Amino acid sequence: MRHGKYRFVAGFLALPVLLYVFYVWVPFGYSFYFSLTRYRGTDVPPVFVGLDNFTTLFTDTPEFWKALTHNGVILLIMPLVTIVIALIFAFFLNVGGKAKGGVTSGVRGSKFYRLVFFFPQLLALPIVAVLFQSIYRPDDSGLINGALNKLGLPKIGFLIDTNIALLSIIAVMVWQAVGFYVVLFSAGMSSIPKEIYEAADLDGASRWTMFYKVTLPLLWDNIQVGWVYLGIAAFDVFALVDVLSVNRGGPSFSTTVLSMEVVNKIGAGNYGMASAMGVMLFFCTLTFAAISLRVTKRESIEY
Amino acid sequence: MATVSYKGATRRYPGTTRNAVDKLDLEIGDGEFLVLVGPSGCGKSTSLRMLAGLEDVDEGAILIEGKDVTNLPPKDRDIAMVFQNYALYPHMTVYENMAFALKLRKTSKDEIDRRVKEAAKLLQLEEYLSRKPKALSGGQRQRVAMGRAIVREPQVFLMDEPLSNLDAKLRVQTRSQIASLQKNLGITTVYVTHDQVEAMTMGHRVAVMLDGVLQQVDTPRNLYDSPANVFVAGFIGSPAMNIKTVTLGADGARFGSMLMPLTREQVTAAGDGKVTVGFRPEDTDLVAPSEGGLPIVVDLVEELGSDAYVYGHADVNGEQERFTVRTDGRSAPSLGDTVYVKPRGAHHHVFHAETGVRIA
Q1: Pair (B126, B18) in one structural domain
Q2: Which of B208, B231, B254 is the last residue of a domain?
Q3: CB under 8 Å to B31, separation ≥6 — which residues?
Q4: Does a cis peptide bond (omega within 30 degrees of 0) precede residue B239?
Q5: Is residue B47 included in any domain, yes or no?
Q6: What residues in B contact A220, CB-CB < 8 Å?
Q7: Are residues B157 and B28 in the same domain?
Q8: CATH classification at residue B314
Q9: Mean of the pLDDT values across residues B57-75?
Q10: Are residues B141 and B272 in the same domain?
Q11: Chain A residues contacting B, CB < 8 Å?
């Protein structure tokens, strides 16, 4: 009986595991292998060169370090800003309304806002990128600069100024991601029993205290999950950078990220270097996920 | 410590025709333990939440210690509440749960520590202070909820069915603990329950509500002895009173072959034709056929050891009516027997057949 059960389970698992191994683990294996070779992707077989690619990467590839730094900057700013904005919105949508009587009601029209906040999530990333290209356009035809011009204000080179190009792209990421996290946090907030808010109200908690001392700690699980998702997303900004940035990662490498550089190296026919960068990206993402899960670990909440 | 007055307090939920609480007038004395009781949906919890400030007051006013608090937010009313599901903060330890309100008021650390320790000692929670609520049993959580209210030293305690999540035995135990705690602290307490036994055993006075309307406020003794109307008569006491509307004769109420004697004043006040009469299962005797009791065919006997409850039916003026009688456990009749039931002495209650109001 016991034996039969395992065979039954294995029967269901076999196909997904096979697909997963073939489409995930095998390419991973190839990447690791290529990263140790010189390979141009043609019919000339790869030549094993040991760790040469990594040495070159660390000592003689400034764009790699730029890309890594940019990923780091995105990792620091984007999840934090997204989560803070999403939390504020979610708080207003769920418990930010009228103070008296129903403590847990949202602001007026909260259902409508919830829907609107979710819209960006429905658009594919490249479409978002195209959309923002016209919003960010540096001349009068850009949505923002056109408006600034009408108001007699100086234009802003969102994507052509090396100082703010990366920030402009981060802003798009935040704009696109907030909606989903508003919904995630809203779900978390609505699962907090309203009596807890009422008890806090009777205990003399102000709006801010209630948010800081009750809502936030009780949402910690959700925030943690959000943080990990967004952090991992910070390592993969390819679609946005590819479509939105000037010269795919420009101007002068000011917006490039690891995934962009991987593609650039492939474009240059240097599969070995591209794979080496891919391997670095793999370890970065893995390290981040491991660290963040460890650091944010807390005992789960029961009501 | 304070007095509480409801002055025509009314709560109307939008989109409903009937008021959830209708013109509630209630005076609660300093240090009094008042119990609000009634079937579910009668407005007792709403009344309590109006006092807490968690529910709007649409008409009338609520006063605490003579001060109008009708439009004050909950935190400015100096009240503490124990919720049915306790509403403990799950991410805080027992100590933090109890200290939370004091911290928000910027009470000194030493003072907080003293008061929390004191309450913990009172409630036998000392060894659990560093635990989270999820590591506590139901009874312990209930005590933490009490502790959270006690450390505040509020003017008024509010309790919303605080015992309904406990098992039967613990409930009886905690019931007496709460009552003696309230007595020692002397803090005015309003307690909501649907359990009339809780109401009768704990309250100094009991307020019975139905459909948002206050039916009667009195001591448990008086509620039992002279219920103001048919609803209170049927609600207070277990098993419920036998209440029947029967034909009115010149000298009493006719239960088929049995005559229930009424005074001349009662007959006059009852008006024409019909009268509602009630007598409690415990105010009856089983008598010999010759003594003129009401013959009842036994449908069910509940043996409780000391007593037995006899459920049966009788033919009263052409209608099959059900009756409950308490009798000695050792001489209980058997199923299908016919027994003769006679209400004892003057313990029956008379109500107007139309209005249901008590006729003295």
Answers
A1: yes
A2: B231
A3: B1, B186, B187, B188
A4: yes
A5: yes
A6: 91
A7: yes
A8: 2.40.50.140
A9: 90
A10: no
A11: 99-101, 103, 193, 195-196, 198-205, 209, 213-214, 217-218, 220, 299, 301-303
CATH number, residue A151: 1.10.3720.10
Regarding whether B307 and B257 lie in a shared domain, the answer is yes
Q: CB–CB of B54 and A217 under 8 A?
A: no
C-alpha count within 13 angstroms, C-beta hemisphere, residue A196: 23
Same domain, B110 and B218: yes
Distance CA B224, CA B205 (A): 12
**Pairwise CB contact (< 8 Å): A196 & B89:** yes
State the nearest Cα–Cα gap between B70 and chain A, in angstroms: 11
Which residue from A202, A214, A220 is facing B89, i.e. has the nearest CB? Answer: A214
pTM over 0.90: no
- At which residue do the structure tokens 């410590």 appear? B1
Q: Note whether A202 contacts B79, CB cutoff 8 Å.
A: yes
In terms of CA atoms, which chain B residue is nearest residue A299?
B91
Query: Which residues from chain B sit within 8 angstroms of residue A193, using beta carbons?
Result: 85, 87
Dihedral in degrees, nearest 10, Cα atoms B84, B41, A111, A177: 20
Q: Which domain holds residue A162?
A: 51-295
The pLDDT, as a whole number, for residue A155 is 77
- The reply to whether A301 falls in a domain is no
Nearest to A203 among B55, B100, B133 (CB): B100
Select from B319, B355, B343 the least CA-distant residue to B261.
B343
Are the C-beta atoms of B46 and B38 separated by less than 8 Å?
no
Q: For residues A87 and A185, what is the distance between their CA atoms, to the nearest angstrom?
A: 7
- Give the separation between CA B320 and CA B314, rounded to whole angstroms: 6
Instruction: Give the CATH number of the domain where residue B175 resides.
Output: 3.40.50.300
pLDDT in tens, A36-94: 888 887 777 887 888 888 888 888 888 888 888 988 999 999 999 999 999 988 888 87
Q: Which domain holds residue B275?
A: 242-351
Asked if B172 and B250 sit in the same domain, the reply is no
Q: What is the DSSP string of B271-328?
A: -SSEEEEEE-GGGEEEE-GGG--EEEEEEEEEE-SSEEEEEEEEEETTEEEEEEEEEE
Residue of B nearest to A100 (CA): B73
Domain count, chain B: 2
Which tens digits make up the pLDDT trace of B139-152? 899 999 999 999 98
What's the order of all strands across the beta sheet hosting B21-28?
A: B21-28, B4-11, B59-64, B67-68
Gap from B29 CA to chain A (nearest CA, Å): 22
Q: Is the ipTM of this complex over 0.95?
A: no
Total domain count, chain A: 1
Q: Is the pLDDT of residue A99 over 70?
A: no
Measured between beta carbons, the chain B residues lying within 8 angstroms of A101 are 54-56
**Residue pointed to by tokens 């490039």:** A256
Q: How far is B124 from chain A (nearest CA, A)?
A: 22
- Asked if the peptide bond before residue A251 counts as cis, ω within 30 degrees of 0, the response is yes
Give just the sign of the alpha carbon dihedral B349, B352, B358, B360.
Answer: negative
Q: Is residue B17 part of a domain?
A: yes
* B42 and B180 both lie in a single domain: yes
Considering the domain architecture, whether residues B144 and B51 belong to the same structural domain is answered as yes
Q: Look up residue A58 and give its amino acid.
A: F
CA distance, residue A191 to nearest chain B CA (Å):
13
